[in-house]
Amino acid sequence: MDWIVTIAIGFVAGVLGRFLMPGKNVRGCIITTILGVGGAAVGRFVAEKVGIDPGAAGSAWDIRSMAVSVAGVMVILLIYRVIIGAKGR
To answer: Which among 19, 25, 75, 15 is positioned nearest to 45, based on CA atoms?
Structure first.
């Protein structure tokens, strides 16, 4: 049951992250969910490294986990755009 919550948070975080980071993005529910779950993992990792308690990022429905997950999605999108931008030049 915990993985269902993780997927739901991932989807919501993916949608919010894409909304907050305007520009051309790959579309689709599955990609958005994968992006959100990956964002939760990245956000939790970064938050722990800088000494912030991320809550239960990716496994509980609270404001801290959602904020950390959305921040992680934005980091992934930024890295993606840097890599794609470098290839496009």
So the answer is: 75
